[in-house]
């Protein structure tokens, strides 16, 4: 039974109340769904990419909601209650930060910048800080501390994982949830929809910026990312 449908994924219930099926859709949206498309095969690419990345992170000791791949577009996940916070980490300036603080696109950011956005489509996911999170009751201060520590670790792990595959992890968006046992888990997806990934040599985008900025065939970029993840495991 369908439990929830978002812009890019559907969550379905299973016989086990603690377990869900996460189905990756072929829909592509950008700028809070102002720009839309549907590309056959996008869901399958993101499911495979996310599965590889979650498996890698779990091997490195990060707790995630990922259980196993079911088929091309579906994975089995632990049921979590999602914190309404989007955690963004930036290693290179691109996207919204370029305009917000007036830095040049492509500037290295080291150590990474950690940002929080309020996960609310009606408000257009505004940038928020710890005080807004406390005021809105989105997470307790200890929870936010734990989420931040995990997010920075995930960024470090993925940054080195990607560079070994000639990919620069420019930035990424993470979401966290609490499972029925009370543990905080990394949830949602990690894919070329939710990360900016540049070819290390040419610095060309291989992620959703291809779609956002009409830079070519978006699936060619997503396939290239997946190919590099698969050829070196
Ligand atoms: P931004 O530069 O537009 O703020 O995006 C930062 C990163 O977060 C980028 O990798 C894209 C990702 N992202 C999402 O996954 N979902 C969103 O709704 C937004 C705004 C960004």
Q: Could you list some keywords that capture this structure?
A:
233 residues, alpha+beta, 7-stranded antiparallel sheet, 5-stranded antiparallel sheet, 30% helix, 34% strand, globular, binds thymidine-5'-phosphate
Could you characterize what this model shows?
The protein is α+β, with helices and mostly antiparallel strands and 233 residues long. Helices cover 30% and strands 34% of the residues. It has helices at 42-59, 96-101, 130-135, 141-163, 209-212, 218-231; strands at 2-5, 9-13, 19-24, 27-30, 35-38, 66-71, 74-78, 80-82, 85-92, 108-118, 127-128, 167-179, 184-187, 195-199. A hairpin with a 4-residue loop joins β4 and β5 (35-38). The structure holds thymidine-5'-phosphate.
Gist?
This protein has helices at residues 42-59, 96-101, 130-135, 141-163, 209-212, 218-231, and strands at 2-5, 9-13, 19-24, 27-30, 35-38, 66-71, 74-78, 80-82, 85-92, 108-118, 127-128, 167-179, 184-187, 195-199.
């Amino acid at each position: 039974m369908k439990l929830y449908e978002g812009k890019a994924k559907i969550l379905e219930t299973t016989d086990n109340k603690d377990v869900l099926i996460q189905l990756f859709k072929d829909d592509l949206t950008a700028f809070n769904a102002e720009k839309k498309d549907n590309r056959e095969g996008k869901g399958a690419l993101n499911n495979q990419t996310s599965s590889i990345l979650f498996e890698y992170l779990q091997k490195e000791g990060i707790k995630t909601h990922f259980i196993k791949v079911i088929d091309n577009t579906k994975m089995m996940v632990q049921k979590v209650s999602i914190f309404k916070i989007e955690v963004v980490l930036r290693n290179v300036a691109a996207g919204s930060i370029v305009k917000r603080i007036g830095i040049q696109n492509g500037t290295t950011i080291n150590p990474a910048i950690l940002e929080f956005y309020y996960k609310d489509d009606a408000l257009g996911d505004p940038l928020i800080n710890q005080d807004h999170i406390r005021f809105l009751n989105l997470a307790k201060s200890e929870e936010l501390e734990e989420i931040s520590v995990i997010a920075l670790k995930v960024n470090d792990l993925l940054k080195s994982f990607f560079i070994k595959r000639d990919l620069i992890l420019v930035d990424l968006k993470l979401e966290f949830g609490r499972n029925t046992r009370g543990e905080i888990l990394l949830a949602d997806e990690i894919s070329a929809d939710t990360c900016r990934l540049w070819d290390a040599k040419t610095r060309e985008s291989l992620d959703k910026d291809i779609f956002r900025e009409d830079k070519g065939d978006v699936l060619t970029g997503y396939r290239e990312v997946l190919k590099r993840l698969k050829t070196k495991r």
